[in-house]
Design brief:
The complex is a heterotrimer of chains A (about 160), B (about 80) and C (about 425). Chain A has about 160 residues and is α+β, with helices and mostly antiparallel strands. Chain A is built from 4 helices and 6 strands. Chain B has one domain. In chain B, strands 1-2-3-4 form a 4-stranded antiparallel sheet. The two termini of chain B are about 20 Å apart. Classes of the chains: A alpha+beta (about 160), B alpha+beta (about 80), C alpha+beta (about 425). Chains in contact: A-C, B-C.
C-alpha cells in the first residue's frame, strides 16, 4: 500500500469524528467499541504533561479495559448510568496535525451537554484522535480528551467522553 | 531559568571577560547582576539571616528614601549586544 | 445561619444507638458547627512528607474549606499555613506546588518566610520603618502540626489530645501499610484526581467501611471482572468490621487473605508479575515475615475525619458545604517497589475518580442518598445492622461481621463527643 492510500483526508477524518460522537451520544455501545483498533489507548488526563503510567488520570484504558468499561455499562447495573445520561455533543475546530508514523493525527474541540437527575453538566475539551485505516475502515488507535477543567474537582463522568 | 510563582530569574555563565562570571537576569524587570567567583564564595559563607534580610522588599528595591541603584543603572549595557 | 441555631442537647437527641436523624446531613447549622468542633479542632490529615521532600518545598492543601500551604522549611520543619496574606487577606500562593524559602503576596508585595514569619513589606516608612514587623502579623499557622510515618496531620486548636492519642490503634494500620514497602516508606507521588459529589461528607465517611454495600453498588464490575472482592463482603466472609476508637474504623479483610495464603493475593497480583518487589520484601524482612506481610495485605481503614486508606489507594475527604464534598485520590506508591507501583497506578486509575469503575457508582449512591434524606419521612436512618451480634475482640475492640454497621455506630459515638462534649 502507498502512503496516499493509507492516509486519511480531513473530510474523512471529520466524518469519522461526527460518527463517533453520534454513537457515543446514542449509547450505541457495540458500534462505538468497534471503532477502536486492537492496540487502542483511551486517555483522559488530569495533567497532559504527565506520564499516565506513573501518574493519575481520569481515564487511562487499554483495549481490554475499554471492553470492560463497555461490558460494565451493558450489565444495566452501572448505577452512575442508571438511567443513562442524556447527551448531546458538538465536535468542531477539526484540523489534521503531523502524522505519527502511518497514523493520521486529528485535533478537535468537543462540547458535551450531559443531562442527569443532578442537573446539567457542560463538558468541554481538546481532543486528539490517532486514526488508522484497518481493512479499509477508519479506526481510532488513540483518543485523548484534555478537559479544560481537568485540574479541578469534577463530578462523576461515567458516560463515554 | 530558576522560576517560581513569585520570581523568574535567568541564570547563565558569562565568559566575555578575562574570567567567567555568573549572569543573573530578573526576567520580570530586566535588571541584571553579575557575580564573580569571589562574590559567589562570599554568598555561600554568608549567614542565613543575611539572605532573609535581602528578602525584605523595603531593604533595597521598594524603599521610600535613598532609592539606591535604579533598575536602569543595573541594566546591562554592552554595545556588542545591541540589536540582539 | 449560625451555630446558635443548634440548641444544647439537640445533637444528642438526633443520634441514637441504632439510628441517626436525617437533618444531620442536611442542616447548614449543623455543618457550620461541625467545621468549628471537628474540622477546625481535631487532627485532620493534610498531606504526606513525600510531597515536600526537599527543603523549601511547598504544596497547597486544604482542611475542609480552608486553603492551606504545607511547607518544609530550610531546617526540615513542617508547617501548615493559611493561604491568606496578613495585610489585606489576599491569597498568597497560586501554584499547586513549588520550591521557595518565602512567599510574596502579588497584591502589595508583603513577603513571608515559609514558616509564616513576616519578612517585610515594600516602602516600609508607611509603617514607620522595618521594625513595624514586630507588631504586624505573619501568615496564620496551624498551631499544631505533627506527622506519623510521613503522614502529616494538623490541628487548628492550640490544645487537645496529641496526634498519637488521636490516632490510637489507627496508627497500627498506618504501620501495616508502610510495612508493605521494602524500605518502610510510602510515597504519594502519583498526583491526584479530584472528584466532587453533591453529598454531605459523613455519607462518604460512613460508606468507606460499610461492608454491606459492595455486593449491590459494585455488582456490575464484580460480575464481569471475576473479582473476588464481592465475596469478601458477604455473610460467609470471615472478614470483620472493627471500631478502632476515636471514630476510626476498618474492614479487616486479612482473615480472608490469610485463608487464601498467597503473597499479594490481596492485590490480585500474581507474584510472577512483580518478582523484583517480592524479592526485595523477602530480603528486607526475611522470607517468612516478608511472606506474612505480603499475605496479610494492606489496610482498609477510615481515619476520622478525612483520611481513607483503601488497600492500594488513598482518599482525602474535603467538605465544602453541607451538601458538597471533594474526594482527592491517589495511588499509593511504596518506596523501593517500582514494578509494583506501576501496576498500582493502573489498577487505581481504573477504579477511582469521576469515571472510575467503582467510585463513580459510590458517588451516585452518595448523591442519591443526599437527595433521599431530604425527604420528610421517616426522618431517621437506621444504624442497627449487626447490633445484636457485636462482640469484643481479644484486643478490646468492638467488632461485627463484614457487613455490619459497627463502624458507623462508632463514628457517631465519637461524633457526639466532639460535637457535644457536655
Amino acid at each position: 500500500m502507498t502512503a496516499v492510500a493509507t492516509s486519511i483526508a480531513l473530510a474523512e477524518a471529520e466524518a469519522f469524528l461526527y460518527r463517533e460522537a453520534r454513537l457515543a451520544d446514542a449509547w450505541e455501545l457495540e458500534a462505538w467499541e468497534a471503532l477502536w483498533t486492537d492496540d487502542a489507548v483511551y486517555h483522559v488526563p488530569v495533567d497532559a504533561g504527565h506520564d499516565p503510567r506513573t501518574h493519575m488520570s481520569i481515564i487511562f484504558d487499554n483495549r481490554n479495559r475499554i471492553a470492560t468499561r463497555i461490558k460494565q455499562l451493558q450489565t444495566g447495573k452501572r448505577h452512575s448510568q442508571r438511567p443513562p445520561s442524556r447527551l448531546c455533543r458538538s465536535v468542531s475546530n477539526v484540523e489534521l496535525l503531523d502524522p505519527e508514523g502511518t497514523d493520521t493525527v486529528v485535533t478537535s474541540v468537543v462540547q458535551i451537554l450531559e443531562s442527569r437527575d443532578r442537573g446539567l453538566t457542560w463538558w468541554v475539551g481538546r481532543v486528539t484522535h490517532r486514526l488508522r485505516r484497518v481493512d479499509g475502515q477508519v479506526r481510532m488507535a488513540a483518543k485523548t480528551v484534555v478537559l479544560v477543567d481537568s485540574d479541578h474537582a469534577l463530578p462523576s463522568m461515567s458516560f463515554l467522553v | 531559568m530558576v522560576a517560581s510563582e513569585f520570581a523568574a530569574v535567568s541564570v547563565s555563565l558569562d565568559s566575555r571577560g578575562n574570567g567567567t562570571r555568573l549572569r543573573l537576569e530578573d526576567l520580570r524587570s530586566g535588571a541584571v547582576r553579575y557575580l564573580d567567583a569571589l562574590e559567589l564564595e562570599s554568598i555561600v559563607w554568608a549567614p542565613e539571616h543575611w539572605v532573609r534580610e535581602l528578602l525584605d522588599p523595603s531593604r533595597h528595591r521598594w524603599r521610600d528614601a535613598d532609592p539606591g541603584p535604579s533598575v536602569e543603572s543595573m541594566r546591562e549595557t554592552d554595545p556588542g549586544d545591541a540589536g540582539t | 445561619m449560625t451555630t446558635a441555631d443548634v440548641a444544647p442537647g439537640d445533637l444528642r437527641s438526633r443520634v441514637g444507638t441504632d439510628r441517626v436523624h436525617g437533618s444531620l446531613y442536611t442542616d447548614p447549622a449543623i455543618y457550620a458547627l461541625e467545621l468549628e468542633r471537628i474540622w477546625y479542632t481535631t487532627w485532620v490529615y493534610v498531606g504526606h512528607t513525600s510531597e515536600i521532600p526537599q527543603p523549601n518545598d511547598y504544596v497547597r492543601k486544604d482542611i475542609g474549606p480552608q486553603q492551606v500551604v504545607m511547607t518544609r522549611d530550610k531546617a526540615g520543619g513542617i508547617h501548615v499555613l493559611h493561604n491568606r496574606c496578613a495585610h489585606r487577606g489576599n491569597l498568597v500562593c497560586d501554584a499547586e506546588q513549588g520550591n521557595s524559602s518565602s512567599f510574596r503576596c502579588p497584591y502589595h508585595g508583603w513577603t513571608f518566610a515559609n514558616t509564616g514569619e513576616l519578612l517585610g513589606f515594600p516602602f516600609n516608612q508607611g509603617y514607620g520603618g522595618a521594625r513595624a514587623r514586630e507588631r504586624l502579623s505573619g501568615l496564620g499557622a496551624a498551631p499544631r502540626v505533627e506527622s506519623y510515618r510521613g503522614f502529616v496531620f494538623a490541628s487548628l486548636a492550640a490544645e487537645g489530645p496529641t496526634l498519637r492519642e488521636h490516632l490510637g490503634a489507627a496508627a497500627d494500620r498506618i504501620d501495616q501499610l508502610v510495612r508493605l514497602s521494602p524500605v518502610g516508606e510510602v510515597e504519594l507521588t502519583a498526583g491526584w484526581v479530584r472528584h466532587e459529589v453533591t453529598a454531605n461528607w459523613k455519607m462518604l465517611v460512613e460508606n468507606e467501611t460499610d461492608g454491606y454495600h459492595p455486593q449491590f453498588v459494585h455488582s456490575s464490575i464484580f460480575s464481569i471482572s471475576g473479582s473476588g472482592i464481592g465475596a469478601l463482603y458477604s455473610d460467609k466472609s470471615t472478614a470483620v468490621t472493627r471500631a478502632l476508637g476515636g471514630g476510626h474504623s476498618e474492614n479487616d479483610l486479612s482473615p480472608e487473605f490469610r485463608r487464601l495464603g498467597v503473597p499479594m493475593g490481596w492485590a490480585g497480583t500474581p507474584e510472577s508479575k512483580i518478582p523484583e518487589y517480592t524479592a526485595a520484601m523477602r530480603a528486607a524482612y526475611g522470607a517468612e515475615n516478608g511472606d506474612e506481610i505480603m499475605i496479610n495485605g494492606s489496610p482498609h481503614v477510615m481515619i476520622f475525619p478525612n483520611l481513607f486508606i483503601a488497600e492500594i489507594q488513598l482518599f482525602v475527604l474535603q467538605p465544602l458545604a453541607v451538601d458538597r464534598t471533594v474526594q482527592h485520590v491517589t495511588a499509593i506508591q511504596f518506596a523501593g517497589a517500582p514494578d509494583l507501583n506501576r501496576r498500582l497506578v493502573t489498577q487505581c486509575v481504573g477504579s477511582v475518580g469521576p469515571a472510575g469503575m467503582l467510585l463513580a457508582d459510590d458517588a451516585e449512591m452518595y448523591e442519591r442518598n443526599q437527595r433521599g434524606v431530604a425527604q420528610r419521612r421517616p426522618e431517621w436512618l437506621d444504624l442497627s445492622r449487626g447490633l445484636h451480634r457485636e462482640r469484643t475482640d481479644e484486643h478490646g475492640f468492638t467488632i461485627g461481621t463484614a457487613t455490619d454497621e459497627t463502624s458507623m455506630r462508632a463514628m457517631w459515638e465519637h461524633y457526639l463527643t466532639l460535637m457535644d462534649p457536655s
